[in-house]
Amino acid sequence: xxxxxxxxxxxxxxxxxxxxxxxxxxxxxxxxxxxxxxxxxxxxxxxxxxxxxxxxxxxxxxxxxxxxxxxxxxxxxxxxxxxxxxxxxxxxxxxxxxxxxxxxxxxxxxxxxxxxxxxxxxxxxxxxxxxxxxxxxxxxxxxxxxxxxxxxxxxxxxxxxxxxxxxxxxxxxxxxxxxxxxxxxxxxxxxxxxxxxxxxxxxxxxxxxxxxxxxxxxxxxxxxxxxxxxxxxxxxxxx
Length: 239
Prior knowledge:
By secondary structure, this protein is mainly α. It has helices spanning 3-27, 31-54, 60-90, 96-100, 107-121, 134-150, 154-160, 163-178, 197-213, 217-237; strands at 128-130, 182-184.
């Protein structure tokens, strides 16, 4: 076996493994551990492509493996998290709506699956993304129970245990995954730093937010990422 050729695939499988472990933690309601596993999976997801390009061993097999791994780490895991949050929001209610409402959380999984399949066919997404990438969406969804737990704001807590708010977030999440909105990529492919001012500036902004707000910064960063892309698109369209 050619280790050089298989290294990116090994990293992809580690992404999948991280997603599988994250699922176990979600089922135990250990959302912090699940969040850490998803972050680890995203780390492997970033570097599998990096090493595939660096070693010039990109392959159709690697592309398919990447999507299959992401389907678990960034598709099934956030769907299960939303399902769990909706179960909690239903409380002890025995109504038909409360019993079946939590399954709606897996709409995120379905939308992620559609996006990942479409991504492999969409030739427009080489230097930017069309719609919200599944890893970014996964981080957003997994941060919600952590924000609800750690936030000092009672209003934030109440919003994030409200089933109507959670259902709305689910719908917006599913829409954003497949929306025809161009979002800039954070991948830097060369030493031309001037060409990546937007990316570097956003990374600095994200780091500062994380230092100041910690876990609460995650949803703010994801929302800022979308808004920054929209503003950037509008600004460039006028040039």
